[in-house]
Amino acid sequence: MLKKLIISPPFGNILNLDYATSICGTFTAEKRKGMLRQYLKTIRPVYRRKQVGWVNAIGLRNPGISNLIPRRVDNKIISIVPIVQNDIPILIENIENHIENKGLNFKAIEINIGCPNASFHTPNTKEVEAFQKLGLELILKIPPVRNYLDIIEQYSDAGIKYFHLFNSFGSGRGGASGEILKTLYARMILKVKYKFEDNINIIAGGGITSLYDIEMYKEVGADHYSISSLFFHPTKIFKFLSEYKNENIAV
Questions:
Q1: DSSP assignment string, 10-54
Q2: Can you give the pLDDT at residue 180?
Q3: Which of 130, 134, 23 is nearest to 80 (CA)?
């Protein structure tokens, strides 16, 4: 069972909190070099009088699905992305190996087709069925495109019940995330909730800095709440986590 609070990468890669579920990844079939360099080169704040978000162009740099560090991924959602169609069996085989031979306990599999900084293969129905045979809950992280409702409908019909609505939009400098997204994002969640009602679970994020933001996302239809860029602000994240625990809503 997923907690209401979700910690997205990169901070989900290193954090385990009792009252939250972390996402580790995103992993590709093969190693993609240059992670640290891209972090240092591309993560930048966005300002409109005050800071309202972040941009990055990390582009799915990661050690590859076969090179997971067990203590970092155990008891977390594992996020993966197939760059090309041939990556699908490689990803499935490695996840199965990590579960059966290494004893890793994944909470769920997130199939990430929502990264604005990289190309990817969109799984078809048979490929979704192949992932489902692993016996884990599937989450689809969808891209920020006009036909997002059609994408959710297609994969909901294929049996996916969790949808992580994109927490970044493409921009000239990379994927934009943070407070800058909230108004637009809330409207989009409302449309998803209106169309699908309680037939799916919505993971929402983008600009969460307080319990007020969580309540706002809850009111428009979100079921889970993803945080990441908040961790760039040490004082804000400690205040937020303390209030979240004290409110006793971390269930």
A1: TGGGT---TTEEEEEEEE-SS-B--HHHHHHHH-EEEEESEEEEE
A2: 58
A3: 23
pLDDT tens digit sequence for 61-88? 788 999 988 989 999 999 999 999 999 9
> Pairing state of beta strands 5-7 and 20-27?
parallel
Question: Both tokens of residue 91?
Answer: 């990803």
Over residues 142-157, mean pLDDT = 91
Domains, the chain, with CATH or none = 5-246 (3.20.20.70)
Please tell me the number of Cα atoms within 13 Å of 200 on its side-chain side. 31
Mean pLDDT, to the nearest integer, of 125-136? 97
CA-CA distances (angstroms) from residue 114 to 37, 173, 247, 250?
22, 17, 32, 26
Half-sphere exposure of 101 (CA within 13 A, CB side): 7
What average pLDDT does this structure show over 193-200?
95
Burial (CB count within 10 angstroms: exposed 0-12, middle 13-18, buried 19+), residue 152: buried
pLDDT in tens, 95-117: 999 999 999 999 999 999 876 65
Task: Judge whether 184 and 204 are in contact, CB under 8 Å.
Answer: no
Q: Which residue has the tokens 């809330």?
A: 186
d(CA 64, CA 57): 18
Among positive and negative, which fits the CA dihedral 96, 97, 100, 103?
Answer: negative
pLDDT band at 249 (very low <50, low <70, confident <90, very high): low
DSSP sequence for 142-203: E-S-TTHHHHHHHHHHTT--EEEE-S-EEETTEEEESGGGHHHHHHHHHHHHHHHTTSSEEE
CB 120 within 8 Å of CB 82: yes
